[in-house]
Amino acid sequence: MESDFGIARELSDLQKLRALYQPELPPCLEGTTVRVEFGDTTTAADPRGAHTIGRSFPHTYGQPLAHFLRATAKVPDAQIITEHPPIRVGLVFCGRQSPGGHNVIWGLYNALKVHNPNSTLLGFLGGSEGLFAQKTLEITDDIFSTYKNQGGYDLLGRTKDQIRTTEQVNAAMAACKALKLDGLVVIGGVTSNTDAAQLAETFAEAKCQTKVVGVPVTLNGDLKNQFVETNVGFDTICKVNSQLISNVCTDALSAEKYYYFIRLMGRKASHVALECTLQSHPNMVVLGEEVAASKLTLFDITKQICDAVQARAEQDKYHGVILLPEGLIESIPEVYALLQEIHGLLRQGVSVDSISSQLSPWASALFEFLPPFIRKQLLLYPESDDSAQLSQIETEKLLAHLVEAEINRRLKEGTYKGKKFNAICHFFGYQARGSLPSKFDCDYAYVLGHICYHILAAGLNGYMATVTNLKSPVNKWKCGAAPITAMMTVKRYGRGPGTLSLGKPALHPATVDLKGKAYELLRQNATKFLMDDIYRNPGPLQFDGPGADAKAVTLCVEDQDYMGRIKQLQEYLDKVRTIVKPGCSQDVLKAALSAMSSVTDILSVISTPSNSGNTPF
Amino acid sequence: MESDFGIARELSDLQKLRALYQPELPPCLEGTTVRVEFGDTTTAADPRGAHTIGRSFPHTYGQPLAHFLRATAKVPDAQIITEHPPIRVGLVFCGRQSPGGHNVIWGLYNALKVHNPNSTLLGFLGGSEGLFAQKTLEITDDIFSTYKNQGGYDLLGRTKDQIRTTEQVNAAMAACKALKLDGLVVIGGVTSNTDAAQLAETFAEAKCQTKVVGVPVTLNGDLKNQFVETNVGFDTICKVNSQLISNVCTDALSAEKYYYFIRLMGRKASHVALECTLQSHPNMVVLGEEVAASKLTLFDITKQICDAVQARAEQDKYHGVILLPEGLIESIPEVYALLQEIHGLLRQGVSVDSISSQLSPWASALFEFLPPFIRKQLLLYPESDDSAQLSQIETEKLLAHLVEAEINRRLKEGTYKGKKFNAICHFFGYQARGSLPSKFDCDYAYVLGHICYHILAAGLNGYMATVTNLKSPVNKWKCGAAPITAMMTVKRYGRGPGTLSLGKPALHPATVDLKGKAYELLRQNATKFLMDDIYRNPGPLQFDGPGADAKAVTLCVEDQDYMGRIKQLQEYLDKVRTIVKPGCSQDVLKAALSAMSSVTDILSVISTPSNSGNTPF
């Protein structure tokens, strides 16, 4: 099949139009005289992990932030990189495909060629397997022409998700050396960017000349931290799913007799479910983070939904739409514990048929309580990241089943007096992943691709390309790079066999912040959503006219531009230094000392690690 | 819940833009001086049924076709209806919601008000139940403003699908009389339009003044005959589904390790599956009509798919996309027979648990062979139209299961040498039904709404509104009306308990014509689709730019404009009459007689009913 990669193909009329779309560049990346300004050296967000991270990444931890500025920017310390020798860059798709991935290639390719037409971009064919096997496709204008602004990862393909074992890392290094790569760009999510950081460290240690750059591309939207506001693909996925959810809402309201249970993508975190709820206003959403935080059992969740159904029945409403993230099932404490037991037994080689007899008494009781179809799905072998095969576990059917049983019980008992409860279940997973990317994802990915070039031109290693202030128009976007190690945390408690890797620094999926503004917006509206059917239909993904420039609600309500604000702080400090120069008056010095002493006191107190165990973001 | 009908609501930006869209009218419907030309009296397409239909519909069978022409059209016999007294019209949504239904209301409302501002349009709330209970909502500009060009049936809602029993028909008549309706417009598919014809006949018999008009609105696209080229909703459904299928194709090509089995809507006929295949070029489609025509068993279908998987594996391809219509399961002869036995037992009141023990030996053998999840689904009580609960039967999972088992067998045997077979299943049903309607469906529905008015203004009863030449731009569309009875056929062999209604004339779902041009196009491309992955991505439904004006492939390849061609024939006949007037030369008369004798001979031969049992279209 590899021989087919990169072949030209027939595009539909709309695809052709999209292929003609030229994403804009923010002013700072225009032309060939981009300035780089280095900020302060970075630390890890979780100060408790900083020492461990520093020890694990001696060559790449603690590097400064980098900001890319336009040539005319008035920043004294910024430097213009004037030399642009031809360079060779490799690029690999890691992990699940995400709409917009192709545009990272395009942006990087254009930036390479603008700065030196003799530079080379090699795509690895078939993902990390292609990297290990040194199978490449040289990107050319011709090859790329039918992939501009198009979905999927089919220009290069992808296979396994990991570059982690010593064997894999060595194979990657051998490939980079054999192909004489100056840079390797890794496109992926949390896992792949952790791998990229590890590769960068290993390469630096081994004095391999290849610099490694990561790009945040994952439709789950869970690679989120101070430096990274959102991920390529998330916007498209939420828009396509919100369209479908809205269609189902309209359907529910037309027939008025079904409850739709819809399972959405989102494994460790419920970002997609939250965003889709804010876009399409279904009646209810059950976020994994809420369930985990409140330690809700399967029975609690069932009861919550039944109470909602009952409250609506009292208003003579017998329809509704309820969203669930696929990771929900692992957030339910007792189901998680059951899964852990099952996975443990599977890893010991216990056959599927004998597992139920070897469970602990309480796990066995829960297992036997569950309907047969779910039992079968829970018995599937866990994935490489130790989680259950979440796309295969029909949590929506389980909950629909439990709710129906409970409503029937209440009906018999006389506490529920409404009509029969009818549920229809859906899983909205794979049908969105291959979508044409939204304008936002096209632009964001293209700009990130450009930044990859500037990171390599600046000779940086182990950085992730970043764009901040994304809720503003492209001409206000701020471009930079942050060491991946600065985004790492150290997990204190491992999961199952993950205890082996206890204390290993890594990027971890950011979960929905239950104290954040997006969640607050959901809570404020939850009752209206539940009772008033204020369904909102953003419609199918548009590329022109209203809606085409819409951005994710969660992106727009959250505080943003951490990178910009870090720069702003630097400017304040510089200003103090300029005003309080030796020779200034005693009064000025006194005022400065008093004010700064107060500031440092406050900051010391609030940034001391607490023992409450809160994750920092 | 009824109190919520027709309330204004928040629209998204895209919905607002769509609400501003004003569908065009073909020139023949512009202004208030539309001419009506009556064509020849109609017969039924199946001459064998004509007598039965005529006997069942003495008042409404054999009425002429009606063509609506512009005031300036040079047609001698056409009449302009000059009187437009205020009239009262009721409108009811019947059956499953279909995108565009709202625009029929809008078109009718505008036509009513243009001709007489004192006319009244009443919508029945909650479908046929609302008709029986005389629950209405008067349509006003204000009420309709947020429903223009919007999906769903939520302005009025819908409930039961039938107006058929004596009690129901009487309730409908009582409503029409009580509300002093001049017209009743029934919006729906095959079943609802049959009911409309029956109502029209009953009303005429009872001298009820209300005229009944049907409108072909059904997303299945199976209300198709000489007069009706396509149905409102079909275009949108196929576009939304093709978008999702294309996304899945891109996904398959990116990961190269999954076969996707996708079940689509389409109960008695596979029009949606055929159209989506022609739009998005998946690897394979299994049409119910092919299976029925070739009497393929479950094992034959499994083998066909396995052979395809094997052929692709030989080219190192381990991914693919396979479409199935939801009605497929009933097309498989042995499964159909099993379902008939099960439904018979269910109707006799046999409990679900005892059914398997009461099946005939061979049916029992098949039943026990099937995996448990399918057994449970086959045991569901049949729907009101005697078909199985097709939306609940996961045919895609059954076939994926059987294909996997067979591939594993071949692997063991050594005949299949490829990698492991992995299947992922999807049902694309409800997520398209509530979509914003495509431009085509907005226009088509709006024009049909206008035609309803002209049918009523001409005093016609038992007609369906028709638009032909739909593949051309709106300004070439031809508007008319045909008696519903002319579209009826008489089924010779009843199904199960349907034998009671043996010989009762009705509209029947048109199945995919295996000799038609659309199917031929599929066959010509089947091998390329299967082997070459020439996936085509029409992209999400657009309302502007490329793709926004795309029409269904099946609509564009089929012969069209039957109504137009019938008119053309009339013109030829008139011309002959004009040329061969008394007083013409002997030679002219001789030539005319000779030619006409030959024409009539040929036509007599080819229009004599054959006994081969072919359905006429």
TrEMBL record, chains A, B:
SUPFAM superfamilies linked to this entry: Phosphofructokinase (SSF53784)
GO terms of molecular function: 6-phosphofructokinase activity; diphosphate-fructose-6-phosphate 1-phosphotransferase activity; metal ion binding
Primary subcellular site in the record, as a coarse category: cytoplasm
Subcellular location field: Cytoplasm
Pathway recorded for this protein: Carbohydrate degradation; glycolysis; D-glyceraldehyde 3-phosphate and glycerone phosphate from D-glucose: step 3/4
Domain named Phosphofructokinase: residues: 88-452
Top-level taxon of the source organism: Eukaryota
Keywords of the record: Allosteric enzyme, Cytoplasm, Glycolysis, Kinase, Magnesium, Metal-binding, Transferase
A GO-annotated cellular component: cytoplasm
GO biological processes: photosynthesis
Pfam families recorded: PFK
This protein's record includes keyword S-adenosyl-L-methionine: no
Regulation of protein activity: Allosterically activated by fructose 2,6-bisphosphate.
Record text on subunit structure and interactions: Tetramer of two alpha (regulatory) and two beta (catalytic) chains.
Entry function: Regulatory subunit of pyrophosphate--fructose 6-phosphate 1-phosphotransferase.
Entry-linked NCBIfam families: PFKA_PPi (TIGR02477), PRK07085.1 (NF005482)
Protein family (similarity comment): Belongs to the phosphofructokinase type A (PFKA) family. PPi-dependent PFK group II subfamily. Clade 'Long' sub-subfamily.
PANTHER family: PYROPHOSPHATE--FRUCTOSE 6-PHOSPHATE 1-PHOSPHOTRANSFERASE, PYROPHOSPHATE--FRUCTOSE 6-PHOSPHATE 1-PHOSPHOTRANSFERASE SUBUNIT ALPHA 1
Name of the molecule in the record: Pyrophosphate--fructose 6-phosphate 1-phosphotransferase subunit alpha
Source organism per UniProt: Cinchona calisaya
Gene: PFP-ALPHA
